[in-house]
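== Item description ==
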Amino acid sequence: MEALVPAFLLAALTQLCDKPAMLTAILADRYGRPLTVAITAGIAHATLNLAAALGGSLIGPMMTPNARALLLAMALIFGALGAAGSNRVKDRLDGWKLGAFFTPLLGVLILAFGESTPFFTLALSTGGQPWFAAAGASIGTFGVAFVAALLGERTWAAMPWRWLRILSGIGFLIAGCWIGVNALRLT
């Protein structure tokens, strides 16, 4: 149960100013079905989080506690680096004619595959509670996708995400360095 809340918070913070949320807002406006788009974006995120949790449950028993902490530190540092990027979506999937269910499902699945949230889920899953980590991350990502879909592209893009990206990036970097230094027993 202790992996549920950190996974939720990490997922929500990273998704608030990340590309999958922006794509969800774009597709919700295009199809005019925000609830359908939000649900399918949530399914895409849940699929990735479940795969990451499965991976964490497989490698977790082979890792020492320090290795698990170091993996979490690396995930946080990579999350900080990801926060420095842009949330602009380069491909709006205009050529995709798969409808209001499959376009967001596949588009968000592909876009979120390289994002920080599955890496956080993997790192938290190695601690022994993979399904709670997957559940927390999935709830966090669905919540953000739901809000993005309801607000739509114009309102979502107008939000001051830059400051949240900077603050969350700094927070991730500090936490990652702290956990990493402790995992390497340098303190």
